């Protein structure tokens, strides 16, 4: 089985040409992997496209847990483990951290999939960290991306960790999006998802 990173895969796609169906399938793979990791009480701390491997069937797997730790061992402050372009602002600012740092990084990965771009590619890593932590900057959303997916990105990279969804919720949302796309149905923003979720449970 040959493997490539998601970052290398996106770089090879120039010009960018991923369909929403492919975006959702790939991030659903990642979200399911992260849901499992968090269920074990582990925080990845370096989730990024360079640490996501693709197999021959273009399915994604979460890799490189070298900087991971048990959430129960997290102190009041984070050490700056990880990579600045994907790093949550509370990690950059040495504030108290939880597993929600991985949700922030997931939001950046989802953004990468909707644009094909490297986050803050016009800035150095340190400049990107400063922009996120001090200026609350985020990469610009793609106007070509379905609004519901952009809505999920914004929720995942919220400056407030408590406002970021758990991976269990992200998986549920993406499973609904996956069904919608395969059935030709429109994607609904998250606040409007409950009725549709009930429909698919019937």
From TrEMBL:
Family annotation (InterPro entries): Prot_kinase_dom, Ser-Thr/Tyr_kinase_cat_dom, Ser/Thr_kinase_AS, Ser/Thr_Kinases-Pseudokinases
Recorded coiled-coil stretches: none
Molecular function GO terms recorded: ATP binding; protein serine/threonine kinase activity
Pfam families: PK_Tyr_Ser-Thr (PF07714)
Domain Protein kinase per the UniProt entry, residue ranges: 1-185
PANTHER family per record: PROTEIN KINASE DOMAIN-CONTAINING PROTEIN, SERINE/THREONINE-PROTEIN KINASE TNNI3K-RELATED
Protein name per UniProt: Protein kinase domain-containing protein
Originating species: Zizania palustris (Northern wild rice)
Organism placement in taxonomy: Eukaryota, Viridiplantae, Streptophyta, Embryophyta, Tracheophyta
